[in-house]
Amino acid sequence: MSDLPITRDMFDDVMVPNYAPAAIIPVRGEGSRLWDQDGREYIDFAGGIAVNVLGHAHPKLVAALTEQARKLWHVSNLLTNEPALKLARRLCELTFAQRVFFANSGAEANEAALKLARKYAADHAGPDKREIIAFTPSFHGRTLFTVSVGGQPKYTEGFEPLPPGITHVPFNDLAAFASAISERTCAVILEPVLGESGVVSATPEFLRGVRELCDRHQALLIFDEVQCGNGRCGHLYAYMGYGVTPDILTTAKGLGGGFPISAMLTTAPIAASLNVGSHGTTYGGNPLGCAVAGAVLDLISDPELLAGVRRKHAAFMAGLRRINDRFGIFREVRGKGLLLGCELTDAWRGRSRDFVKAATDQGLLVLVAGPDVIRLAPSLIIPDELIEEGLRRFERAIAQLLHQTALAGEESAHAAR
């Protein structure tokens, strides 16, 4: 059995069918390139869904992991460890935070943030202040609590009954939010830049207004920066570019550069509500993850690297607009830093996955952000020449898809005659 070849077909035989991976299986990565089982090369504009902020097999991350692997792998939360303490201290130095909780994924960080908000309200305001306000569309994870807060029926259908006490209002609609928030609201959670839900940025006026209303109603403001944080938007965390500081911030994805780790950041007075035994996780803060994340943070907090993200954003935007000038298929090209979204025109709505497949055929990996948006989330240090080559491949992919669609239309018209 162990000698059987590893193929994409094996996925369908042994894995739960909750994913539909592409036909290729990558086996090696270096920088912003991947190679599959057949040795074919791909330029990576997907970044493991905004995870590989420093590309594949970055030597400093490999060195950090290798060094720590020779020392200590796991001790549980019954003991602390040096890499966790170093990473927590550095996160506090670089952000508004005074206290850090480590977990393994974005969903777990958001779960911790939401539990903390309700616990803090229970400690300070009593049982009536339990409502959580979130925005539609949004995505905060796949646990039952976080998927309920995300509020998208396609992710909650079949998992009812859902946790109560959650209200949803439209993203970027300050008037609707002002009507919804009340003294019963214990927390408000939002993504400064929507990731899965179309790469839509919050307006500065919206974030400032949300902050002011949270203060007025003594509600905690949670920023979900699982995808838009860790240098992705051209600042270490997106809130810094807006000048609006949350009470709690969640981070994951790029924090480990590919190694599973997440964190919840907050202030000391708020953190005090998670007293001993009130929350926990077996693997959160393990030495391996924290050692790698420490190396990531050292690199992505460099002002030169962050300035490079903003410069590369301009190069991507110019290239995507040139492509659109030729084909006219994007209603809008948007995003911050190296989190970019290309929204398809009405004629192409619902076909974002077709563009992903066409790009793969041309040796380029891209993402979707819903059925109508193509998403790009490359390494923050992708070389300029790979940006240009990747955009050329993207242009060829679009030309190929348009040609195939036109041929299919002609064949259909001919058959109808």
Automatic annotation (TrEMBL):
| Pathway the protein acts in | Amino-acid biosynthesis; L-arginine biosynthesis; N(2)-acetyl-L-ornithine from L-glutamate: step 4/4
Q: What is its main location?
A: cytoplasm
Q: Which cofactor does it need?
A: pyridoxal 5'-phosphate
Q: Keyword annotations for this protein?
A: Amino-acid biosynthesis, Aminotransferase, Arginine biosynthesis, Cytoplasm, Pyridoxal phosphate, Transferase
Where does it live in the cell? Cytoplasm
The record lists the catalysed reaction(s) as:
N(2)-acetyl-L-ornithine + 2-oxoglutarate = N-acetyl-L-glutamate 5-semialdehyde + L-glutamate
Q: Could you state a single Gene Ontology molecular function term?
A: transaminase activity
Where pyridoxal 5'-phosphate is bound, by residue?
Answer: 106-107, 139, 224-227, 282
Residues annotated as binding N(2)-acetyl-L-ornithine are 142, 281
Residues with PTM N6-(pyridoxal phosphate)lysine:
253
The record's EC number reads: 2.6.1.11
Under the heading Pfam families, the entry gives: Aminotran_3
Q: Which InterPro entries match?
A: Ac/SucOrn_transaminase_bac, AcOrn/SuccOrn_fam, Aminotrans_3, Aminotrans_3_PPA_site, Class-III_PLP-dep_AT, PyrdxlP-dep_Trfase, PyrdxlP-dep_Trfase_major, PyrdxlP-dep_Trfase_small
Subunit text: Homodimer.
Question: What protein family is recorded?
Answer: Belongs to the class-III pyridoxal-phosphate-dependent aminotransferase family. ArgD subfamily.
Miscellaneous comment text of the record: May also have succinyldiaminopimelate aminotransferase activity, thus carrying out the corresponding step in lysine biosynthesis.
Stated name of the protein: Acetylornithine aminotransferase
Q: Which organism is it from?
A: Candidatus Competibacter phosphatis
